[in-house]
Amino acid sequence: MILRPDYQRAEEQLDIIRQKLIPLADRTKIISKDLIKPSEYFQFYISPFEALQIELNESANVIDVKVVQRAKKRLLQEVDLNDGKVSWLGDYSLSKSRALTIGDELLDDRRLRYHLAIFQNQRLLRFLTRGDIDRFLYADDYFPKETIEFLEKDPDFHSFLSKPFAQQYNLLLSRALELQLLPVVEVLFNGRRWVLPEDDDTCFEGANKQVNYLANLLQIEVNKGEKEKPDLLLLESLLHQHKFPDIFNLLPVPFRPAQTNIVAKLRALAISCYNNYGDTDLSQDVLNLCKRFRFKNIELNKKLEEDSKTIAEMIAEERKYEVKLVFNKDRSFEITKDGIRDGNKFLPVSSINKMRWGITIIGYTGGAKYDYLVVITNDAGKTIKASWCVYNEGELVPNSTKHFNSIVQATLNYLADTVIKKIQSVLLNEQSVIIGPCTLTKGGVEFKSQGFLFKKSQFIRWLEISTEIKNGHVIVYKTSQSNVTTTMSARETDNAVLLPIITSIMQNKNP
């Protein structure tokens, strides 16, 4: 469309578009120079006017047969003398049979008009012959009005141009995708393709292969995610290295199913992170990667929103026992699913192997001092200790006890499971674990109980053991003989607080 000079609104809109397209054109010119090598020129189209070096005049619509014959003779001589190459076509190799038929194209009035229309549109000509993409770039001085009108007026010209155009377009687009030249990809997708509907598949043949290649790369990650926990950094690196979002966000409507497929694969991987590994955070992080893609599949958008909401609810439920306190101005303390942190010291949950806690009340009723203690130790012997004292005044004790209970609850919910599994693993490997006066084995618990005069060694099978926590102590006894018993301080004995849980687990494994 040609703008009316006085149509201000259209002029303003064009200026907005121009501000985007001109920088894109400048970037594209720089990176597209060597997109196609000289050896790849003239694969799909050779202009008879260019090959025969026929100069146009006012009567170009009619070519003298003698002019064509002389030009053909000159072309054949060039082929003979230059080892089958044509110097004015950049040493393009041309067979004699092809040289003979080129001239005949101009002796057919209809084909003459078609070749002439292409030759007079130099940007179109250089695209078809040399892969030059200038015809796709915005320029104030380029609007191929005559070519467009000819295409609309003569369907046969459209048919004549369609196949070589589609083949050259396919080569350029495939190469740009392969080399990740995204500005080139963008202008090719944005530009007008002068092809018939039946040749659209040819335009996108190589692009489809490249898109399928990327989809297969991601499918490999999805398959791996079924066997081992995905690594978010590696997944992000894969998307970045192959420019997944950049490429798929540029794809036009014919590629919409491919874009939907990519996001569906990421969604499947996110679901796998939760179903197979129970990692809600990782599941949410993978779902967030989907937000880098801009797609129009309403149904998939809805699924992703539902998934994200569900995962968010799971994360909230999973984290509801987390503790984040500040003991003083410079010291923060927290227990989360990742581990325990005290100031700058952090013990990952996977490293923890011991824990103990308790409250000691010192003094008389009404003026007693409450001493709170929680100690967590890792495999290397590093310890985090939270301890504080308050006197029974006002709300000090209730508030402190509330904080203490929240720490214990967080410890049981986020840290204890790792320690229990480590102890269980040792026991199942026929080794022993010592907790206070008790020696735990796969078959049961051994300890010394007080006899009439001397202590007596006792071994009790797991099914015969009972435990109880009372007044800050953990009591272990034989169910059928409550006098066969031992006791230990929950506050001072590593892992004593876990004995009731361990007992229950071992009883279920030894029915």
Structure report:
This protein has 511 residues and is α+β, with helices and mostly antiparallel strands. The protein has 18 helices and 16 strands. The chain has helices at residues 8-31, 48-51, 65-81, 96-104, 109-120, 122-130, 145-153, 155-178, 182-190, 200-203, 205-225, 232-241, 244-250, 256-277, 280-289, 298-318, 396-428, 499-509; strands at 85-86, 92-93, 323-328, 331-336, 339-342, 345-348, 352-362, 369-378, 383-391, 433-435, 438-440, 444-450, 455-461, 465-470, 473-478, 481-489. The strands form 5 sheets. It has a 4-stranded antiparallel beta sheet. Strand 4 (331-336) and strand 5 form a beta hairpin. The longest helix is centred in the last third of the chain and has 33 residues, at 396-428. The chain is rod-shaped.
In total, the number of strands is 16
Question: What is the number of helical segments per DSSP (H or I, 4+ residues)?
Answer: 18
Overall geometry: rod-shaped
Q: Radius of gyration, rounded?
A: 40 Å
Task: Strand order, main sheet: write it out.
Answer: 3-4-5-6
- Poorly predicted ranges (pLDDT <50, ≥5 residues)? none
Structural class comes to: alpha+beta
User: How would you characterize the largest beta sheet?
Assistant: 4 strands, antiparallel
Give the oligomeric state of the chains in this entry, treating copies of one chain as homo and distinct chains as hetero: single chain
As a percent range, the share of strand residues is: 15-25%
The average pLDDT is 87
